[in-house]
Amino acid sequence: MKFPNWLAVYGDLTYRGQCPREAIEQITAFNRIRGAYPDTLGVIALHPRNEAKRSHHKARREKAEGMAPGASDLIIPGAPAFVCEIKRRDHTKSQWEDHQQDYLWAARQQGTFVCVALGADAVMEALYAWLDTHHESPLQSPHIAHGGEKCS
């Protein structure tokens, strides 16, 4: 798998060997984020569903409804946003899907923090780099009541 020179890659590019599939790495990464930041990043981190095979009619409808072809695996709104494409730890066992690089490039052009992470550990490495670079203090999470009101 080749990476464009404008794209930050987190993880060990030299690793070769057994590793979980991308979906398992993604589940692990989301569990870690939600565990570490249950009231902040864990609430807003999302994965847009774009991968499933669809009929031509359904694909056209979903695109009209806002589906973005090639949208990355992990998106966290922010200033700047965090957009991460997750690949397997051994990146030679992964491949680029249609429009993924286009999506990352377009997000980067808008000032977004974009990257590729090779496995769940690399996702957390990228997340910490984003937090260190773009957030002056550690995220604090006020307790939010059911109605959206802060509790004291």
Word description of this protein:
By secondary structure, the protein is α/β, with parallel strands linked by helices. It has one domain (8-50, 59-134): Trna Endonuclease, Chain: A, domain 1 (3-Layer(aba) Sandwich), CATH 3.40.1350.10. It contains five helices and four strands, in the order βαααββαβα. The protein has helices at 22-36, 41-44, 56-64, 100-109, 120-134, and strands spanning 8-10, 74-76, 82-87, 113-118. Strands 1-4-3-2 form a four-stranded mixed beta sheet, sandwiched between helices. Helix 1 (22-36) crosses helix 5. The longest helix has 15 residues, at 22-36.
CATH class: Alpha Beta
Basic shape: globular
Provide the succession of SSEs. EHHHEEHEH
Q: How many alpha or pi helices?
A: 5
Largest sheet: number of strands, sense, barrel closure = 4 strands, mixed
- Beta strand %: 5-15%
Brief rundown of the structure:
With 152 residues, this protein is an alpha/beta fold. It contains five helices and four strands.
Task: Itemize the secondary structure elements and their pairings.
Elements lengths: L7 E3 L11 H15 L4 H4 L11 H9 L9 E3 L5 E6 L12 H10 L3 E6 L1 H15 L18
Parallel strand pairs: 1-4, 3-4
Antiparallel strand pairs: 2-3
Task: List the main descriptive attributes of the protein structure presented here.
single chain; 152 residues; alpha/beta; Trna Endonuclease, Chain: A, domain 1; 4-stranded mixed β-sheet; 5 helices; 35% helix; globular; disordered C terminus
